[in-house]
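Tokens for chain A. Residues wanted.
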């Protein structure tokens, strides 16, 4: 243990010793870790890596998946979102059921074990639109796992259907929904959410919907979007909220830090927000903040959530694989398509082929493993030094996917 914390300051050593002894790190202690630099930060990263090794060993995983963003029409007006279009705006899309099923079939034919389905809150869709998507895919592809519908979409569908959250989620489960993305969380802080999303799902509603899903046996992921108008205390409190839910329900499969992509985000590009001092919008997280977020997520969630994922879409493939030495054990999905980050100006492409993902992981000395949505192993690969170029690509067969203007 001493080698892990060599040269770290006394306070940081004490906090990290707690983590290594499987004692929960408090919010104030996490804030202290977020302030680390130099030797202290190196110690944080080393301890996160040690905790990762204890929990999941040398394996690093990925999933073959396809993102299907079935509509980019949304009237909620989230200030950070570069994805949403108005219904009559150029580039607005609402995919037909046939097109959704076709894309799911294409994913299945290319080896995908899941599809991840999310969309904007289109004013014209009915409450049963969500169940109809699940039923249509399951009719043609009964063995494909459907990972779909953020808590915001659950809120919207339940409202449109005049059902309680519990009734609406149970119906989706009965139709074949396998798990839910824990997106739309952003920062689970009341004041920050008010500034980012005036009319969006409240913190309490997000927690309520996620908790109900877990109670009904529907697993979900958990996320954070950081590096905009937030501060380390908000990150620590968010992690504590996620941990508290997990302590009560055990329903989270993974935690995924998502750095704010600023390039085409209205929050950053619109002068109304950029020049407003109350927002103080930053150009996304710094390199050190990305490192700290992944490492401290591992430390703070130790014993509760085993899987910490790095998003190659947000970080870029080369940077994401560096996080494998900072507490991360998963690099997410091959994706095939990704519209939301791309619409915000993301510069890292839409797809990494499975063999490229294997090569990325193997190049770090970790053992690549293909998993399913629930982290059950499907295929393991030798951790050799095979080098395959790991630049991200866009598959030619998907050239007709949604394209959004900046």
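Reply:
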């Amino acid at each position: 243990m001493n080698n892990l914390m060599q040269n770290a300051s006394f306070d940081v050593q004490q906090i990290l010793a707690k983590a290594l002894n499987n004692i929960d790190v408090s919010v104030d202690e996490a804030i202290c870790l977020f302030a680390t630099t130099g030797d202290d930060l190196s110690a944080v990263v080393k301890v996160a890596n040690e905790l990762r090794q204890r929990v999941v060993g040398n394996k690093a995983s990925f999933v073959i998946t396809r993102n299907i963003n079935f509509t980019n029409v949304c009237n909620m007006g989230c200030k950070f979102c570069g994805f949403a279009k108005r219904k009559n705006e150029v580039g607005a899309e609402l995919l037909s059921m046939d097109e959704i099923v076709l894309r799911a079939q294409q994913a299945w034919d290319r080896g995908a074990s899941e599809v991840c389905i999310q969309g904007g809150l289109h004013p014209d869709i009915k409450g049963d639109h969500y169940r109809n998507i699940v039923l249509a895919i399951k009719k043609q592809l009964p063995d494909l796992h459907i990972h779909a519908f953020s808590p915001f979409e659950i809120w919207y569908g339940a409202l449109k259907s005049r059902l309680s959250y519990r009734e609406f989620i149970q119906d989706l489960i009965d139709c074949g929904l396998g798990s839910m993305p824990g997106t739309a969380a952003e920062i689970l802080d009341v004041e920050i959410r008010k500034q980012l999303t005036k009319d969006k799902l409240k913190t309490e509603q997000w927690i309520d919907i996620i908790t109900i899903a877990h109670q009904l046996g529907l697993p979900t992921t958990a996320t954070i979007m950081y590096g905009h108008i937030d501060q380390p205390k908000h990150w620590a409190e968010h992690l504590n909220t996620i941990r508290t839910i997990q302590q009560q329900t055990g329903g989270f499969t993974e935690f995924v830090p998502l750095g704010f992509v600023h390039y085409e985000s209205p929050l950053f590009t619109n002068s109304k927000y950029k020049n407003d001092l109350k927002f103080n919008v930053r150009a996304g997280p710094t390199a050190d903040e990305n490192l700290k977020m992944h490492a401290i997520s591992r430390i703070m969630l130790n014993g509760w959530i085993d899987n910490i994922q790095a998003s190659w879409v947000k970080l870029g493939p080369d940077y994401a694989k560096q996080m494998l030495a900072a507490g991360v054990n998963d690099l997410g999905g091959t994706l095939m398509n990704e519209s939301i980050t791309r619409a915000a100006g993301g510069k890292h492409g839409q797809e990494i082929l499975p063999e490229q993902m294997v090569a990325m992981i193997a190049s770090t000395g970790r053992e690549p493993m293909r998993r399913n949505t629930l982290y059950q192993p499907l295929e393991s690969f030798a951790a050799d030094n095979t080098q395959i170029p790991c630049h991200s690509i866009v598959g030619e067969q998907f050239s007709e996917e949604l394209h959004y203007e900046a």
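The mean pLDDT is 85. The first helix runs from residue 10 to 20.
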